[in-house]
Amino acid sequence: MKLDLPRYTERFGAISLHGVQRVYELDSGFNNGRTASETVQSIGNDEISEIEKKMAIVIPIKGERLKLLEGVLSGIPHDCLTIIVSNSPRQPVDRYKLEKEALEQFNRFVGKNAIILHQKDLGLSEALKQVGHTTIFGPDDIVRNGKAEGMITGMLLAKMAGKDYVGFIDADNYVPGAVNEYVKIFTSGIAMSKSPYTMVRISWIYKPKVSESGLYFSKWGRVSEITNQYLNSLVSYYTGFETEVMRTGNSGEHCMSIKLAELLTYSSGFSVEPYEIVNILEEFGGILPTENFDAMDKGVEVMQVETRNPHFHEEKGDDHLKEMFNGSLSCVYNSKICPPKLREKIIEDLRGRGILDEGQDLFPLKKISPFKDIDIHQFAKILHEKATSFVHSV
Ligand code: GDP
Ligand code: CO
Question: Which residues neighbour ligand 2 (ion) by CB within 5 Å?
Answer without folding.
Answer: 170, 172, 313
